[in-house]
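Exam prep: given the inputs below (a chain plus uracil), describe the expected output before reading on.
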Amino acid sequence: MKGVRVDRLLSSMGYGSRSEIAQMAKAGRIALEGAPLLNAASHIAVTDDLPSRMTIDGAPLDPLPGMVILMHKPIGLVCSHTEAGPRVYDILPDRWRRRVPPISTVGRLDKQTSGLLLLTDDGALLHRIISPKREIRKTYRATVSRALTGSEGALFASGQLLLNGETKPLAPAELEVVSDTEALLTVVEGRYHQVRRMFAAAGNHVETLHRERVGGLVLPPDMAAGDWNLLAAHEVAAIFD
Ligand code: URA
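Solution:
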């Protein structure tokens, strides 16, 4: 097997330009199974265990392309690559922002929404998760400014609710009332500001919004806002449960 050129791989992972990586290799900063890999033009097999076999300056190689990150998104960060202001990407290691393909959020949470956010560099996976056909369930905990009337559940479940400015009704959603001003809402779509607009359509106003679940993945209750971790393959599979 021919494998992948080391300079091409490391450059796509944000370690530097191909010429910088050639210099790093010459300087003995790249090692494979403990031995310096001096020629960055050499080819290596990219196996899942490469990050434990290759080191850069003595540190294990970053995760290979195909990573999935679960983040507890804090309030105040934007999910966009282009919008001004602090971004969720700023929480990740600097080098990861230079990766190609880039790491992107799987859908978006508003700046003022917290909770479970997935990020990946795997475009096909991203599209599978956000595809409306898959109907991945997303559960949000919302607090609202006015007491719930008791009619919201039927409205949201009706499959008839039209959001302001739209022509296609929302798919049925499930509401579980927690208290007068707090509820869990599970939706299968990901329209722009969907949950806030749903409560607005019911004559209410969302004060706080937090996503607790995406498919079979639940935000670990002990995970602090701003923390993140890489998902193992079985956890990624749980998204589709
Ligand atoms: N619905 C919203 O209104 N905002 C979000 O961030 C997610 C869903």
